[in-house]
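Page 47, continued from p. 46.
Same chain as before, 316 aa.
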Amino acid sequence: MQQAFEQAKNLIDRSSRVLLTMHERMDGDDGGALLAMGDRLEKMGKNVTYAIKKGVPPNLAFLPGTDKIADDINRDDFDLLVTFGCSDKKRCGSEKTMALDVPILNIDHHPDNTNFGHVNVVDHKKSSVAELVYDFFIFCDWPITKETATCLLTGIITDTGSFMHSNTQSSTLKVAAELMRKGAHINNIIKHTYKSKSPQILKAWGKAMENSYFDKKHKIIYSVMTEKDLAEFKNLPQAAFEGFAETLNTFPEAKFAMFLRQDGNIIKGSLRSDIFKNTDVSKIAHIFGGGGHKLASGFSVSGKLMKDDAGKWRVA
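Result:
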């Protein structure tokens, strides 16, 4: 990784107009890492553009720098593209970004990353992209401000499920402790990311729980939210169901949990398991063109969720 860090630093040092992006719908890990990097590059005198398709969810708007994030780019004169948490370039969701012909710095911790960058800083052993970016900061001897620490600790907390997931290692806890010493307030991060659900979101969770089923034969617990179900809740934020699949996965008899919800003409699937359940959900996600980790993966497929006369779910 030291060689990749050196190559990444050289790429950054040679750049002046940098575009930072990630997959659609900002999450705490990739978004926190992106904001931390962007702040440092700005302090180095770089011209930095932040672009994330479908923007910032309300629970992450507290992060410093989110006001700089645009939905897409309106220029093409960049000399460096940095991606966070994208297994391939298409994951950024922007046709304009995909059309850019510039050097790419690819930063990720997912095992299915295709190493599409000119420089690839990819380590699937890390708990999160945020922890990987922290290591890069240390390698570069870059200062970590209170704002940087807040962004990076948010990434670590959200991707480890508040240190409950099996990707939490001793190194992860050491990094988290150091970020707290730098000024990040863990209680404030948890309040915003996990404890700020509106009554409307709680009602939507209630509906999703009502729609949950346990398949005793295959030991799968799953929940489905159709277009009709979602129509009951007006202006529901995109991140409303963040953490729901993890909650389903607490059912002890299930080998894994699956949450399906309609998003326009796309069906979004989230899969979760635990190390003691001995199920690699990334293999299931790959069947549907998705990916992720062994214990946390996702996919998207075209279609509509429908229930037939026999009460079985199908895709129309």
